[in-house]
Amino acid sequence: MTIGIAAAGNAAGAAVYDAVLGAELLGRGAIGGFAVMAVCGAAGAAEYRVTQRGGVTALDVPPSWRDARVAAVISSGPDRPEPLTQFLAGAGGVGLVTGHRLPNLPGEDGVALNQAVLARMAGGTHPQDAVDAVLDAHPEWDAGLIAIDMRGRLGMGNSARVRRRDDLGLARREIPPATLGLLHNSIHARGDLAADLADLAWSRLLGGPAALRLLVLKQAADLAPAERDCVHVDGAGVIVRLETANPRLASLNRRGTAVYLGTEVRCGGRRIGTATTELYAELRAGQALPGAEPGQHMLLARMDHVQA
Predict the structure, then answer these.
(1) With a threshold of 0.85, does the pTM exceed it?
(2) CB-based burial label for 181 (10 Å; 0-12, 13-18, 19+)
(3) How far apart, in whole angstroms, are the C-alpha atoms of residue 124 and residue 128?
(4) If DSSP codes are grouped into helix, strand and coil, which group holds residue 22?
(5) How far apart are CA 171 and CA 88, in angstroms?
(6) Which helix (H) or strand (E) holds 66?
(7) Cα dihedral 295/297/298/301 (nearest 10)
């Protein structure tokens, strides 16, 4: 598994979902395939949504899940062994255990590592102590684990084997009332991907500005000729107009790059940032239209007024 993230606090569901979406937009590697998202309440079982292909945007996530107070995601390439829920352990009233690499590997006793952590948490063990105990007992297992309980307490770590890799990303933030843990491997991106994703998730948890902002093409936007490329958005981050210095773009009738990397972003005529991912869209009759596939109508922009 390539990425795992868990969060607790207001809008924890939005935090984990948007962080993995950010990884899919920013990175290259074994992402955008299988995904499992879970939310956990104080009573009742953990609830799951799963997909084998398409990443988080292919998940049938109820809108109310964005406000879930305990949530987690795990994702990687497509077509993984069923049931997909084996990769993200959870229990109502206890918490969730996600991770990366193979958190579902059976331990010495035959119990999956993520389930072993969850069982310790159910017995009252702090998530960090539970993760440490399980990984210390299995140093050469190919697994990294993130555990979060209903109190928002976090535990995370990589086995000794995984720590020897040179492609790891890690982020951890704990400032009451919010908690966030993220692990990834084998995702190639410019800059510090883990820090960018953590910043995006943290902004959802605390409601503040983020260095990266998600922009969305919800309906047809005119492609107007201009001396410089520019994306115009409204206050909600919806793309309302595109300007392009490419003299061919408005005449194309096919799928293509509607927003070029590094394009200026403006809101109400004021520059607010630059596109840090590109937008591929259906180009037709001088307009850009959202793609048919989930996730093909979004881009990330780096905001001028927020430090990364």
Answers:
(1) yes
(2) buried
(3) 12
(4) helix
(5) 19
(6) none
(7) 160
The per-residue DSSP string of 95-150 comes to EEEEEEE-TT-B-TTS-BHHHHHHHHHHTT--HHHHHHHHHHT-TTS-EEEEEEET
CB-CB contact of 192 with 22 (8 Å)? no
| C-alpha closest to that of 222 among 214, 231, 213, 235 | 231
| Residue 135 neighbours by CB under 8 Å, 6+ apart | 113, 141, 143, 145, 157, 158, 159, 160
Q: Is the previous residue joined to 83 through a cis bond, with omega within 30 degrees of 0?
A: yes
pLDDT at 306: 62
Rounded Cα distance between 107 and 298, Å, is: 40
Encoded tokens for 3: 């990425």
Torsion over CA: 244, 247, 252, 254 (sign): negative
Average per-residue pLDDT for the chain:
95
- How confident is the model at residue 208, as a pLDDT? 86
Element at 13 (helix H, strand E): helix 12-26
Contact present, 70 and 110 (Cβ < 8 Å): no
Running DSSP on this structure, what letter comes out for residue 162?
H
SS3 of residue 12 by DSSP: helix
Query: 186 with 102: CB under 8 angstroms?
Result: no
Distance CA 117, CA 299 (A): 36
